[in-house]
Amino acid sequence: MHLKPAERDPASQPRFYSALLALFILWPLFQAAEVSPGALFDPSNLKVIGSFLSGFLPPERGSEFLGYLGKATLETLAIATAGMALAGLLALPLAYLASAAGREKPTLNPLIRSLLTILRGVPELVWALVFVRVFGLGPAAGVLALGLTYGGMLAKVYAEILESVDAAPARALRLNGASRPLAILYGVIPQVSKELASYTVYRWECAVRASVVMGFVGAGGLGQLMDQAMKMFNGGEAASILITFLLLVFVADLISSGLRRSLDQAPPPSAAPFGPGSTGLLAIFVAAVTASFWFLDIGFGALFTLESASSINQFIGSFFPPDLSAAWLRKVAQGVWETLAISAVGTLFAALAGLLLAQARPRLLFNFIFNALRSVPELVWATITALSVGLGPFAGVLALALHTTGVLGRLYAEALDNAPAAPGRALRLSGVPSGLAFLYGTLPGAAPQLIAYTLYRWEMNIRMAAILGFVGAGGLGQLLYFELSLFHYAQASTVIIAMLLLSIAVDQTSAWLRRRMA
Amino acid sequence: MSFALNGVGLTHANGFVALDGITLQADQGEHIALIGPSGAGKTSLISLLGTALAPSSGQVSILDFGQNTASTAALKRLRARIGTVHQAPPIPGRQRVITAVLAGRLGQWPVWKSLASLFYPLDIPGAREALARLDLADKIFQRCDQLSGGQLQRVGIARVLYQQADLILADEPVSALDPVLAQSSLQRLIDDAASRGATLVASLHAVDLALNSFPRIVGIKAGRIAFDLPASSVSEAMLHELYASEGQILPTQSNEACFTPQAASTPPLRSACT
């Protein structure tokens, strides 16, 4: 049917081409991610996952196993806490050096900034995998890995928080002759202390989740237990561990939000700036960090002997020069592409599922489902999806999709609640079915927020997709794991550099996108 | 000699000429009021005296320091002797009044004392005394975001009183205060400077306040000094000439000061009600 130009929707042509372009991009991505829904219903796969899942009930409750579980849970908490303490120790001086706060001429320190980029650009699990080879199996590798990555992250965010507030108080103090550290302490910190503490607590919560999976590369904690259970197809133990994950993440969430709420109360007027509450918190904090290091019993002394220094030196030396041969670079490029594909397709699936479930009722039930989905780390999901569809990128796609559905579902539901209600209500009142009223009335109002959440999550998923391969779910991680197992350090080094570049590229692109949208 | 500016010019990066050919000297202990229409360069001049800005041309010497020769450490020592009252008090909202006042001496205190005062204020009597002079002693342990704008501005003044600077600079120090409080707060600053022999330079928008309280008046217009005279020699015509760009009415403290009963308790205003 040909319409006269005047009657044709002027938007139709761009829309048609955008759809075509999307297909053109998505098709090879789906190919690279090896999306094959058939594998989910393959009889032999069904049998494996079926027998595994049927073993879930009843969850293992043997007293010996529960003993292991309790110890692993404590170890996970201790790794997170000790790692955060280390990260904080690293972050404070680096943030001070990197930040423009308190400087009379706002200059940034490019050297420190690039060091921070490298520290947080390499995923903590990669650091852990590498450290396990230096310090042996055990929590020391996990603590150090968390310390480095989170140190880089904290330092960057601290520096930015310090720069984000009114600079006049610190400038005025400098003009009274105060040095830069004092000008920051008296002029900037009072403005940002709440935000700094709140972000640190939030990061601790993330560290708990991160240290859960450290065990998959042999760095102790719950992950190690889960890895063993999966390898022995012990569904009962896996179920108990998953329930523990849920509880642990839930409790960390609770502690974190409780701590952050307590920062809101103004202190009573008295000579000492800290009330008994904050003094108590400080004591608990010191006790927790001390207990963590004591519990983990990391021989840091042994780590810093001359002997270990030379072996570390030698180890680092074996990573250089990286293998830059054309054949290997081609393979790494393929890994990068596969990683991108896994992240894009997984996020797409999660966005669709999240959007559907975000409106499902009863809300309480679905909130519980979202929380359960997101409390299990992607890497743990990957070990389970690998059982049901076999090793390879599709397992990674499903794992990302499951975890991200939990995250996005909750965010979407909140965004839709906050979207203007009037347009949808007006449509429903004029007899429009609620599904259509949603599409015509509610969705347009919430769309920018939904898109922003999805893009932000995709950004995180690219990083995550790079390491899912550690449990056999494709992408760069699989290459890295493989080469490290074979002691091919030159090749591994190329993969790590590729991960770093990918992470920097994602950072730059999203910063650029945000600037353009703002 | 407290400070000496010789042919000083200040051109901002965007090419705007804020000050041009300023020559101004003050002996130690002098009290000077800067007046002039907004945008004339009063704040720029104060920033220059406070070493916040470096001149684009000419020579500056402050408290016997030539600005160009000062090393970082010497500049810091110099700055510790200069106290500035800012128009918008540069105090973090979540900071407590006591800490904000003690911050005035960060440039003089040893580092350990500055650090320790974050945990427990080490000079409560000193800060209380400075605050008491501005009727704020009861607010000493309150947080600054619980104060009104006028109270916060007086905390800024208390900080400078506490600092005991040799050169006090004040940029519209009482702009957020009602006329009665403005007069008395300014008087505290003047009394403090007089008792310690410190030099005081204040920019004021209210002409009557300047003429009543300061012996020496410097009028600034378009980045240049229009006149530099004893207060008694400043004529009505000169003031109208100075404020020509702002219309026929001279900026004074709001007129109700003349009619409210409280005004009786303050010194009679000379030109406010003419």
Structure description:
The complex is a heterodimer of chains A (518) and B (274). Chain A has 518 residues and is mostly helical. Chain A has helices at 12-32, 43-54, 63-98, 110-121, 124-135, 139-164, 168-175, 180-214, 222-231, 235-262, 276-296, 300-303, 306-317, 326-358, 363-375, 378-389, 393-418, 422-429, 434-468, 475-485, 489-517. Chain A folds into 2 domains: 27-56 and 322-518, MetI-like (MetI-like fold, Orthogonal Bundle); 58-264 and 277-317, MetI-like fold (Orthogonal Bundle), CATH 1.10.3720. In chain A, helix 5 (124-135) runs antiparallel to helix 6, helix 17 (393-418) packs across helix 19 (434-468) and helix 19 (434-468) runs antiparallel to helix 21 (489-517). Chain B has 274 residues and is an alpha/beta fold. Chain B contains 10 helices and 10 strands. Residues 255-274 of chain B have low confidence and may be disordered. The chains are: A mainly alpha (518), B alpha/beta (274). Chains A and B meet through helix 7 and helix 8 of A and helix 2, strand 6 and helix 4 of B.
CATH class of the largest domain in chain A: Mainly Alpha
Q: Which pair of protein chains has the largest interface, and what are the residue counts?
A: A-B, 31 and 41 residues
Helix percent band of chain B:
25-40%
**C-alpha Rg of chain B (nearest Å):** 19 Å
Q: Any idea what the shape of chain A is?
A: globular
Mean pLDDT of chain A, to the nearest integer, reads 85
What is the count of DSSP helices of chain A, taking H or I runs of 4+ residues? 21
Question: Could you give me the name of the CATH homologous superfamily of the largest domain in chain A?
Answer: MetI-like
Give the biggest beta sheet of chain A: none
Order of helices and strands of chain B: EEEHEEHEHHHHEHEHEEHH
Question: Which spans of chain B have pLDDT < 50 for at least 5 consecutive residues?
Answer: 255-274
Uncertain residue ranges of chain A: none
Please give a quick description of this structure.
The complex is a heterodimer of chains A (518) and B (274). By secondary structure, chain A is mostly helical.
